[in-house]
Amino acid sequence: MGSAGMVAAEFASTLGVRVACAERDRIGGDCLWTGCVPSKALLASAKAAHTLRDAGTYGLTAAEPEVDTARVWGRIHAIQDEIARTDDNADRFRALGVDVLPGDARLTSPTTVRVGEQEHTTRFVLVATGSRPALPPIDGLAAAAPLTSERIFALARAPRSIVMIGAGPVSIELAQGLRRLGAEVTVLQRGSRVLAREEPVLAERLLARLRAEGVEVVTDVQADRVSVGTGGCPKTVHAGERSWCAEEIFVGAGRTPTVAGLGLDEVGVQLGEQGVVVDGALRSSVRSVFAAGDVTGGARFTHAAGYEAARAVRNMFLPGSSRGPYLVPWCTFTDPELAHAGLTESAARAQHGDRAVRVWRHDLAHSDRARTDSASDGELRVVTAKGRIVGAHVLAPNAGELIGELALAIDRRLRLADLATVVHVYPTIALAIQQLASEAAYERARRLRWLVRSSA
């Protein structure tokens, strides 16, 4: 009963389907307990501390905040408990007619699930067991009991110093948040880039921001060993002759699907390296078994899991099949945020050819709202192919709130100039979308100047 399971249960119950959900741990899944909710709560506290230090930017007197990370962690846990009591509550689902079954679940046949000591017969099974952090094969890492997204929010306070292995979204978000709360933070990345799936120029701009705030980011480094208590250091990450010492080590180097112990292979469900193998309808190799969310190895986001869950239920019970591709935007919730929808420039050129692709840019230095908010370090990039929008990338405050409009434009195969006809509120960061779209419209208008009638 994580992001996918809860959506599936609620949607299926509205169709009059009899639903049972098996959950061996806490309702809410990764999003509530180890992912989106606690990390965003941490980032909110971190931003407040940063604003106090940076108050001079706004014409106020700067002040060094008194940060007690035990209180910050207490706030995180209070928010989680509030959501668990309300929206992610077993009684709310029972009121919808859903049977909530506590315990480990295992398929004993394609249409039979054992939960605890009881067997339940069903028409369809939805596997929505998610994924877990993966530990890279580094000598001594497991013995050092590293933190992961599953463990860091179970602490009573933040570590005073931390070395992070991996520079994906989870690590980068936490690195900035922990640094703003006073921790010494080092991020080690095996490759040459952080946030490797993002538009490189925008990722580099964000990286410069983190380094300016005191986050040490080291790229092209291959950690090969971890030691504990070496030279008086609690935990040390080694890479050849170099080493980094900290109170804790955090691992943000990928995830692995949760498929062990479910009886999937025994009933004939095909498994791959990324989890349950599904078709476009989210059906597995066994006709009665569907899967959604992280366990399929697709886009590992809460919103993607919820969408897939609803799609799977629709394909189980409603006429017609939802099988086509679907666009999943995402956002890295740093300050500023970095949001992504569709293709990067390089991916667009590889798919459509250089001559068909154009990149439209709008720097937030030209946004009145960004200037008033002292937040002009950002940029909007829209990628078009043969005139239609195929990618959008935003580095800006609240970029995650902006990307939906651009994702819709990609999904509906709109031209950039089409967005110029949508009146946006002034002054907002979102107005940058209309300003950029107006450039495309004006360019087209210049080609049509010959149609303008001269005055008599």
Radius of gyration: 24 Å
Model regions low in confidence, pLDDT < 50 over at least 5 residues: none
Please state the oligomeric state of the protein chains shown.
single chain
Number of helices: 12
Q: CATH class of the largest domain, anyone?
A: Alpha Beta
Query: Structurally, how many domains make up the residues?
Result: 3
Output the strand order for the largest sheet.
19-20-23-22-21
CATH level-four homologous superfamily name of the largest domain = FAD/NAD(P)-binding domain
Per CATH, which architecture of the largest domain?
3-Layer(bba) Sandwich
* Integer average pLDDT: 96
The helix/strand class is alpha/beta
Helix content: 25-40%
Compute the separation of the termini in Å: 73 Å
What form results from the Cα inertia axes? Answer: globular
Please outline the major beta sheet.
5 strands, antiparallel
Tell me the β content: 15-25%
CATH topology grouping of the largest domain: FAD/NAD(P)-binding domain
Number of strands: 23
Structure in words:
By secondary structure, the protein is of the alpha/beta class. The chain folds into three domains: about 5-130 and about 255-315, FAD/NAD(P)-binding domain (3-Layer(bba) Sandwich); about 140-255, FAD/NAD(P)-binding domain (3-Layer(bba) Sandwich); about 335-445, FAD/NAD-linked reductase, C-terminal dimerisation domain (Enolase-like, domain 1, 2-Layer Sandwich), CATH 3.30.390. About 30% of the residues lie in helices and about 25% in strands. It is built from twelve helices and 23 strands. The chain has helices at about 5-15, 30-35, 35-55, 70-85, 90-95, 170-180, 200-210, 300-315, 345-350, 370, 400-410, 430-445, and strands at about 20-25, 100, 105-110, 110-115, 120, 125, 130-135, 160-165, 185-190, 215-220, 225-230, 235-240, 240-245, 250, 255, 270, 275, 290, 330, 335-340, 355-365, 380-385, 390-395. It has a five-stranded antiparallel β-sheet, sandwiched between helices. The chain has a four-stranded parallel β-sheet with strand order 10-9-8-14. Strand 19 (about 330) and strand 20 form a beta hairpin. Helix 3 packs antiparallel against helix 4 and helix 3 (about 35-55) packs parallel to helix 6 (about 170-180). The radius of gyration is 24 Å and the shape is globular. It starts with a helix and ends in a 9-residue tail after the last helix. The mean pLDDT is about 95.
